[in-house]
Design a protein that fits this description.
The complex is a heterodimer. Chain A is mostly helical. In chain A, about 70% of the residues lie in helices and about 0% in strands. Chain A has 16 helices and no strands. Chain A starts with 9 loop residues before the first helix and ends in a 5-residue tail after the last helix. By secondary structure, chain B is mainly alpha-helical. Chain B contains 15 helices and no strands. Chain B has helices at about 1-10, 15-50, 65-75, 75-105, 115-125, 130-140, 160-170, 175-180, 185-195, 200-215, 220-225, 235-240, 245-250, 255, 260-295. The longest helix of chain B has about 35 residues, at about 260-295. Chain B is globular. The two termini of chain B are about 35 Å apart. The chains are: A mainly alpha, B mainly alpha. Chains A and B meet through α1, α2, α6, α7 and α8 of A and α2, α4, α5, α6 and α10 of B.
Chain lengths: ~325, ~300
């Protein structure tokens, strides 16, 4: 029975696991092809132009000249700088206004002690998260339709709006940020509660019992027990959220954008898309340079966020 | 005994004024938020059953099925529904299968090259080539304008891989060892022993994936530039909103009048499949996401 214990060399381990190592292959090949090859493809950012109408991507790549023009153009482009600014403004607004709300609602949800009511409230609040962005924006476009939408009709009936000058909620630069926050809040405030609910459920209930016996009312229990107990979760999630600052929500903004609001709504993602697919002369190489710049900034932010999270909480995203 | 004790404590402490205020505030806010979630959907539901050109708040005006008849008679909706169903089912099945295979060896703590392999996967979460290189790749592979472009490039979902791996790590080793003594192959161990034990997490991951595929229109925007017959439902609805898919509506003045009602009916029909799996989603998602959060 006693086998001589071998030093666990890599060779020994490979031999031991030779039958399950191949299980990794499908996922690794797929990740290599669909994630790593596109990363290599980023070198087209250093080419002057890809002529894809006449050539295959490889021929077009071989025919194009090496250049750094795309990067010098980047910082001279007012459109690019506007997209960077809009990305930051939209992300900032989402963090400041939408980040705290799920904490607040999670506390309220966990205070619903009746099991049936609790489940019902959760089911209703999570539902919008499972609708696709086109559906969410489609729903709001109908509700906020300038002439036949419910919102404008109610406002007109209440005398708060002149029916001859209805508000074009989705085609008015002044209302863009409001609609952006409203639809983003609609889709995700409820769903984001889940993680806080889990954190609150993990609090020892005896603390609340004890506080109640000592005469603390609900407000005081929330203020002195619930919030301090979940503050590290909040900090962790906030840092992670800030790490994703460069991601202003392509699918949402792309479904909302139109020429009227473009100047405040165009984010880096939609700008890259427009450059490459939505123009008569697609500018693939410049679009790639924009994407590469954005990707590097985003990577730095995420790594920094994760590093900070690990330092303060001992736990990061990975 | 414990319950009796709690009851006693509860009866001793009466609700103060502040507690009553808290109860009222709580319900007012929760009900308002629930209404905010539901009313827009109800409005669109009523709109879909209303006569064209009426303004609808909560209930249908001049009830009619006109919009639904238009949607059902047109080919586009069911074609898009078919594409979405195919993508959600095939994509989920393949993705979960590939990730289960990979999660199993990665759950062995002494697997050789375990760390570099994990890093290899994690990097794909942090950095991507972006849309142009992905588009060029899909084009080179001949997948452009196909249904396969909607799920093949996104099969490896690293977050799900981590959930599966973590779950496998928590399973007892003894079962596997005894199966191995009986001469079972690793493949059989994975499918016949580990998989049945991991059903809750596999269900969670499958639902995550299915919902992600069902709601995705980004892949279609990039990889399907020209062929509307392969558009998924989310893309079809997007095009309906922005006016790109209105050609068959614009040919008929009656349909032009009912444009919004037709949009509403399409949205309602597209929500129904989500509502059908929603009970399952609620059952597994909440579990899955907390498992991920606690162990992650």
């Amino acid at each position: 029975m006693l086998v001589k214990i071998k030093k666990k060399s890599t060779f020994y381990k490979v031999k031991k696991y030779r039958k399950i190592l191949p299980f990794l292959l499908p996922a690794m090949i797929l990740a290599f092809v669909f994630s790593y090859i596109p990363m290599l493809g980023l070198i087209v950012a250093f080419k002057d132009r890809l002529n894809l109408t006449a050539f295959t991507p490889f021929e077009a790549f071989a025919n194009a000249n090496w250049t750094l023009d795309n990067f010098t153009r980047l910082f001279g482009s007012t459109e690019f700088l506007q997209a960077v600014r809009n990305t930051l403004v939209i992300s900032f607004l989402k963090i400041v206004i939408l980040f705290p709300l799920p904490i607040f609602f999670a506390i309220l949800i966990t205070e619903v002690k009746n099991k049936f009511s609790n489940k019902t409230v959760q089911a209703i609040l999570y539902l919008p998260h499972f609708l696709s962005w086109p559906i969410v924006i489609g729903i709001f476009m109908n509700v906020f339709d300038p002439s036949s939408g419910a919102v404008n009709n109610i406002l007109i009936r209440m005398g708060l709006m002149n029916y001859q000058q209805p508000t074009f909620w989705f085609a008015d630069r002044g209302w863009f940020h409001f609609m952006m926050l409203l639809t983003a809040g609609y889709k995700d405030i409820g769903w984001s509660c889940i993680i806080y609910i889990a954190a609150i459920m993990a609090i020892d209930t005896e603390m609340f019992e004890a506080a109640r016996i000592d005469g603390a009312n609900k407000f005081q229990q929330v203020r002195y027990i619930t919030i301090p107990s979940i503050v590290s979760t909040i900090a962790l999630l906030l840092i992670i959220r800030i790490g994703f600052l460069m991601d202003a929500g392509f699918e949402q903004i792309f479904a909302m954008i139109n020429p009227e609001v473009r100047s405040v709504a165009e984010i880096i993602g939609t700008y890259v898309y427009r450059l490459s697919f939505d123009s008569v002369r697609p500018d693939f190489t410049f679009a790639t340079a924009v994407g590469l710049f954005n990707g590097i900034i985003a990577l730095i932010l995420i790594l920094f966020g994760n590093w900070t999270a690990k330092r303060i909480g001992g736990k990061g995203i990975w | 005994m414990v319950i009796a004790k709690k009851e006693k404590v509860r009866s001793k402490i009466r609700l103060g004024k502040a507690d009553i205020l808290f109860e009222i505030t709580k319900w007012v806010l929760l009900i308002s938020f629930a209404l905010f979630c539901l009313l827009p959907v109800l409005n669109v539901l009523s709109l879909s059953f209303s006569r064209a050109g009426t303004s609808v708040t909560l209930l249908p005006v001049d009830f009619t099925l006109f919009a639904y008849i238009q949607v059902v008679e047109g080919q586009a909706f069911f074609r898009a529904l078919g594409v979405s169903l195919f993508v959600a089912i095939a994509g989920t099945f393949l993705s979960v299968f590939v990730l289960l295979l990979a999660a199993y060896p990665l759950s062995k703590p002494d697997l050789p090259f375990r760390k570099p392999i994990m890093i290899f996967f994690l990097i794909t979460m942090l950095f991507s080539g972006g849309i142009v290189p992905n588009f060029l790749l899909v084009r080179t592979l001949g997948l452009l304008d196909t249904t396969f472009a909607l799920f093949i490039p996104s099969l490896v979902r690293v977050f799900n891989l981590l959930l599966l791996k973590t779950y496998f790590e928590g399973l007892p080793k003894s079962l596997e060892e005894s199966a191995m003594l009986d001469g079972a192959s690793y493949y059989r161990i994975l499918l016949q022993i580990l998989l049945p034990l991991s059903l809750p997490i596999v269900a969670t991951v499958s639902l995550f994936t299915a919902v992600a595929y069902w709601n995705d229109y980004f892949a279609s925007l990039i990889y399907q530039p020209t062929r509307p017959e392969y558009f998924p439902l989310a893309r079809y609805i997007f095009d309906l909103m922005t006016g790109a898919a209105l050609s068959d509506i614009l040919s008929d003045p009656q349909k032009v009048m009912a444009r919004q009602n037709i949009q509403a009916a399409t949205i309602v029909l597209a929500i129904i499949p989500v509502l059908m799996i929603y009970p399952l989603v609620l059952k597994y998602f909440t579990k899955g996401i907390t498992v991920g959060a606690v162990k992650g």
